[in-house]
Structure formats: structure tokens, C-alpha cells
Write a structure and sequence with these properties.
Strand order of the largest sheet of chain A: 2-3-7-4-6-5
Number of helices of chain A: 17
Strand content of chain B: 15-25%
Structural class of chain A: alpha+beta
Low-confidence stretches of chain A: 8-30, 492-504
Number of helices of chain B: 16
Order of helices and strands of chain B: HEEEHHEEHHHHHEHEEHHEEHHHHHE
Number of strands of chain B: 11
Largest interface: A-B, 97 and 108 residues
Shape of chain A: globular
Distance between the termini of chain B: 38 Å
Mean pLDDT of chain B: 92
Order of helices and strands of chain A: EEEEHHEEHHHHHEHEEHHEEHHHHHHEEH
Largest sheet of chain A: 6 strands, mixed
Oligomer: heterodimer
Chain lengths: ~500, ~450
Amino acid sequence: MSARRLSTVGLLLLALGCASSKPAPPPVAPAAAPPPDAWRNTQPPPLAAVPAFRAPVPVQRSLPNRLTVLLRENHAVPVVVVELAIRTGVDGDPPDRAGLADFVAGALDEGTRSRTSQQLAEQLEDLAASLGVSPGLDGIRLHLNCLSDTLEPALDLLADVALNPAFRPADVERVRGITLTGLEQRRGNPGALASDEVARLLYGAKHPWGQPAGGTVESVKAIRRQDLLRFHDTYFRPNNALLSVSGDFEPEKILALLAERFGAWRPKSVPPSRLPPFPKEGARTVVTVDMPDSTQSQLALATRTLSATSPDALALSTANVALGGLFTSRLNQQLREVRGWTYGMFSSVGFNKRTGVFQVRGSVVAQHTVDSLKDIEAEVKRYATGDITEDELQHAKEGILQSLPQALETNDAVASTFVTLSNLGRPLDWYATLPGRLGALDRNEIARVSRTYLDPAKVPVVVVGPRKDQEGLAELRLGPVVDRTAEAKGLAARPAPPAAPAAR
Amino acid sequence: MPPRAVVVTSLLLLAGTSALGATEPSIPYTEFTLPNGLRVILSEDHRAPQVTVNVWYHVGAANQRPGRSGFAHLFEHMMFSGSQHVPDPDKVLAAIGAGLGGAANGSTNFDRTNYFETVPASQLPTALWIESDRMGFLLPTLDAKKLVTQRDVVSNERRQRIENQPYGRAYLELCDTLYPKPHPYYHCVIGSIEEIQAASVEDVQGFFREFYTPRNATLAIVGDFDPKVARELVTRYFGDLPGGGDPKRPDVPQPRLDRVVEKTVPDPVARIPQLQMVWNGVKPFAPDEAAGDILSVVLGGSKTSRLYRRLVEEKQIASGVFATNSSLGLGGYFQIVATARGNHTVAELRKEVQAVLDELRKNGPTAAEVERAKRIVVGGMVRSVERIAGKADQLNSYTFWTNDPGYLPKDVARYKEVTTAQVHEAARTLLPADRMLVLDVEPSSPSAPGARP
């Protein structure tokens, strides 16, 4: 299937909200002898106002062992989603074990002390339930989606996977083989290579987040079963976890069910993470990776911004939507609709537990690699002036606000969103209170945060594409050009712990 | 893909009964047809103050002519380039809050094209205004400049989604082998860059006049609205559009593989070899479609599937494997895809897939396997109706394929009724050993570890 544009799910959850609808345009004003279709020239007025969307806010409870439980009832469909979030992810990887958290996540549902990998899979499938384990920079999520009438047996399986993984040697080796194959695939994938280079620039070559996603061949080969067991024993603790539940259940009943399965989980103090500091924002560089056979160049400009709990975070997210987050934003309009060089070029502002990331990203036809960077640079310079029109601001606010009901429509999305809010240290009613906070933003505020956080002189550039199409790159004077082809594609000896997971 | 709708209580399934429980899913709806032939389907859902508008045009790659691969999809892009009274629909959508997150988009597949937007409930009139204007008034403001831009955008879409994705080129090879020119599916939906670039303004005009008529479309509205108001609005915005023709559904015979066709596909983006085995497939809602879907799950739809167990867990020669039964209007395809692990080869993968197929053809699946697969399929239907956008698309899909917007419970029943014997039969008839396409995708970048000179 081909679509006019790629769907970007999720990016909206970064911000969202605003006042109600725009004022209606005036009604049709018939001229002297209007053509019969003249009434169509005018956009129709909105219908009478409808109640505003109320974003779900969870009820917060806890089990006796300090395990926090967030509950949101929703009886629309006979489904319950339970997300168990461990609050340590890639940030728990030791320096010589890049990829450990990913490995733990990959092996976790490959068998428990009482169930083999196949038995576990059979029992889940017999319930028509799905259980996914996703590693992230700052956590690991176990996401269960089950039908409400099989909640109890499905919870048994979730708890067994979370608390009693076996990490049998044969299963560990199978996961290792598949992981190494996946790492090899990434070396041919322009998007994956760009993500790894971005992560290295953002977080540094010595930081766990600066390593290639999933680790390196060397580090994955070095991971032992003991490492998996230790990671699990250290970080899979009720005091380092959160249960987020959305769906078709009765609160008191599900609390009892959860207590039966997670109540005996023993707390244990979790060591504070000792992560290296992020690299200083230095001279801007342009990192290139040569992909001679690619018909496009993958472009990325990225920098750290601010914490999700900063008072400026919402304004920065809103500024980004206006400048580069909408289909109609000038960035996409210029590169796609004016130039025809890309299928889409967008910017994003995202957050993790420790920082935020601003990124411009897209792929362009190879022959216009340098031309595209020139256009992008002009737009990003405009970002730094914070100069947007009132229309642009309103469209951004309206987009953020009106995308909320869709973004929070499913139980899957709601349960995951609560976890994200909690991880970021944001209040759980963040989305419910968004309309008021968003409505208060004006262009001055947008200009101030844009000038403060989006200085292009601090935004490094990554280009993954054919080198032969990069003539004139140095002349753009974006910064010194550094060719990392050999390192990125594994053609040269790497320093022990190399590079990183980016946007996950 | 066959539309897969909703749910079912798996307790009933576990109990082995086929009775429909009280929670049996359905999408309640009402419908009416305007005098110009536009069929309209309404379904209220008041969970949130939003409404989704979804228009299906009964046209896709199936309606293309030789030399114009990719055209139906290129045309879809033109529908966003502005119409006589709505010169910039994207800007209007952005202003009412549908500018983010895929709230408004369109898509083209082999058999149909859709356009949709989810908007605040109060903005239903504007959504209908946009859809009616491009249904009735696209051509007056269409010009070469708009077309040239979208030809380039779509060419970039092909580069991004096919050429620069591992194994994307194998998909084109699949289409070209199963549906050789002049079959309209050749080059898949996306088409070749050369033929995308050859599209003219006259092509766009002709296509619009032939296929973009009210009579050849259906309109679904799902969400928070008053059906009386919606009907008045639809009548106002669409009622005076000329009905136009009622183009016949394309009827092109499905080319049939008559032997084993083997091809090697060099792929500069892939780093690991991949095996694809492909058979001629069925049409949506064909009598053996449901059994074929269940067969695909038993073979390669889950971690307990036969191919996963054999290739990934036991032999450990594959990093991943799946099977799909793709039903298409002019005849679909059944596909098995196995990606190697480490230095293992396509020949090794093929040997093991053959062994699994031989065993399945001979002895059939177990009753437990079939029951499990049915639960997965039916359970998966549940989740799709959690979203109003999904429901709207499903209503249009059922209308298109079965002429019954309310087909959902029947669809659930269709899968529940599949028997072990039918799946065994499907393994023999749908996957003949002597009539298939075998693609050997080999990394071709000089730096790839397994690259062959």
C-alpha cells in the first residue's frame, strides 16, 4: 500500500492541546449573479460547540511492596492492557556490555523457570493475548494486551515472564545469534546508521546511550548469562517498576489479582546509575557515512535541548510543531512541495528521562543532497529566530490539542502514555491540563524558547548516502566534515564500546 | 488483506463452542444512497468529541493501463493538491487540528483508494466540504506544475519505501513475476519511476472522469455526530454532484504459475540473504480464503508456528520467518519469507521450508494448531475496532467486497467455522510444490559479509 505521507504516530503525544475551534468564517454572501457553486467557496462554519475532550487520568494505587499501580477503566471493548515498566533500560548497560538491556528484553520471554519458550508462546496464543517486551533508553516495558475474560491466566503469564525468566543457555544463544544478525542488517540500513550516528553525537561515545542500538558485535558476543541474571536481579524490583493498566476491568478486583501475582515480589535497593556526563556542545560537525548504492541520502540534524520537566518544555514542543512538525510546516513544504526532493521532511522534539532531543530528519533524492541541506539550514536558522506567524502558532496548538483523542484512543496507547509521563517526571494529568497551558502560550514565548534552545550553530549534521553526491558539502560551511563510513559499517576495528540507540 | 474485524470472547473459543456470546462485536450502522449513486454509511460512537470521514473510491492499481504503473497512487497525491473551491486542503485541515499524526491522509492499494480525516466533531461540515470539492471539482485548478511536483514526490516515496528498504526490490520482483505486464499489478502499486514520470495532465483528467464519480465511491462517517445532521450535510455537499458513470470492476484473468520459477534478486541495502516462496493466491472473501489465512498462521504467523519452530528454534538457521495470505481483487498471493541467520544460506532455508510443507501437505495440521490460529485471528479482529478511523475504513471495506457494511459478525463466523480438514486441504491446493516462485535475495553491496561477486 502506498500513501500520500507516512503516518507519524506518537509524535503528537509529545505535546498537545489548546483552545477550541477557530472562529467561523462568515456565511455565504451571494453576489449579484453568483455561479451556482459559489457557495462552495466558503469554508462552512463549525457546528455548535461540543464538550471538550477529557484526556484520561489514572487512579494511582500501590501494592504493599511499593509497586505503584495506575488504573484507568474503559469498557468500550473487552480488552485489558497491562504494561509493566522497569525503570532501567539501556542506562543500566555496563561500559563493556553495550546491548545488555536489549538482550535482557529479547531473552525475557524465551522461557521461565516453569515454562519453556514454546509453552509460554502456546499459552499466550491460546488466550489470543499478546506480550511484547521493549527495551528503551531509560526503561524496559512488558506490554500485555489480553481479552478481558481471560485476564487472570494472562496476568499469570505476564508475572511469570517478569519475575521468573530462566535465561536457559540454549535460549540465550539463540537470542544472541538472532541479535547479531540484526546488528548486521543495521549496517546496510541508512536509517539505522543515521540513528546510531545521531545517538553518538547526542550522548557521547562513552555513554550507554551513545552506543549503536542493540550493542556491537563485540559487546553482544561478550554478554554472558550471568550478565542477564544480574541485570534482572538488580533492576527488576517493585521499587524500580510501575504497573499501568487500561481497559475493561473492575478496579478492586484487578488490584487483588495484581497483588496475588506481584505482591510477593521483593523490593531491593537499586544502585544509583553512574553515567558519564553528556558531551559538551562543541564545534558543529558534519558526519558522513558513504552508501554508494543508495538512491537517497538520509539526513539528520540533532541536538539536546531541555528536560521534560522544564517549564519551557511545552513551549518548545509547540514551537517545533509550528516550525517543522506539521505537513504544512515550511520545512516540509519547501523540501517536498516546492522542491520535490523528498517524500517528507519533519522536525521533532522528544524527551527521555534526562534530556530532550530536537531533530530534523528525512531522506532526499541523492543528487540533491547538498541542495537539500542548504534549504534545511535556512529553515533551521529561521527556527532560531522564533519568528512564526499567528496562523502557524494557532495551527500548531490546534493540531496538538485535536490529535489527543486519537493518540489516546486505544488501551494500548493509554497504558503506555501513563508510563511515559511517569518516566519523564511529568504529572499524570499532563494531558488533561494541557488545553489551559497550551492556550496560554503566545508568540513571544515561542520566540524566546526557540532562540534559547534551537541554535543551529550547535546542531550537528549526519548524512548517510552516496559520497559521490556530496560535492559542495564542505562549502556549505556547516562544520568540519568527518567521514565515519568505516566505523559505522564495521569495516574498521572499533574502539571497545562503540556507538548507540537513538529514537526508540 | 482481508478485512479483519472484531472480536469474540475467547472463553467461548476455549470451550470449543461456536456460539456467539453477548459481547460479540459488531459495528452498528445506518445507510442511505444519494440519487447520484453515492452510498453513505453512518456509525455513531460518542466516546470522544471527534468524527472521522472516510471515502473509498473503487479504483486502484487494478485499473491502470500498461505504461502507467504507479498511476492510481500518483493520482491520489493529486487529490491533495487543491480543488476549485478548496485550493489548499492541507492548510484547512491544519487549521481545524487535523495537521498532525496521520489524522488526514489517503492511501492506494491494488484495488481501491481511500481518503480520510479525523476532525473535531464540530468540524464535520469542513471535512465534508473538502471531500465533496475534490470529488466534484478537482480538474478546474489542476495544472502541470502540480503534477510535476507530485511525480517527483512519489518518485522519492518509491526510493524511500522500496529502494532504500532491505528486501524492497524483491517485492517488485514478486509483482512483476506473478503479474507480468500488461497485467495492471505489474511494478506493484508504487510503479516504476520512469512510468510515474511519464504521467500527463490528460492522464489525470481521464482517470478522474472515469473513476472519481459518486457512483464509484462510498462515504463512511464514524464518531460523535447526530445522524440527522450528518445526513443533511452529506446531502448538501454531495447531493448536486453529477453521478457519472459506474465503471465496471476490472476483470483480468489471474496469470497462473505453471512451474517452479526461480530468481535471484541482488539487493544493495540488505546484508543478509532471504528466501521468499510465493504461490498464486485467492480473492478477498473467496470460499477458501479463511482457511488460507488460518493456514498462514499455522505455518508462519506466530512463535508456535511450524516454520518458526523448525527454522528459528530447532535448526537455528533463520533469524525470522513469516507466512501471509494476501487476497487481492484480481487474485492474490500466498507468501513465505525466511531471513537467514548468521552465515546460513537460502538453500538451507529452502530445504527446511520444503520439509515443513511436505509434512503439512501429507498429514495436515493438528486440531490444536487450528484452534490456536483461529483464536489469534479472531482475537486480532478485536483490537481493530477500538479506533473510529479503523471502523470507518472497515465499513467501507465490507461494503466494497461484500456489499454488506454489517458483515463483521459474519466475518468472525467465517473464521470460527474453519475446520482442520479445510486447512489441510488448503495446504495441498494453495501451495502446490510444482507451481511456485522462489526468490533468492542476495546482498549485493561489496561490503556485505555474504555478498557474492
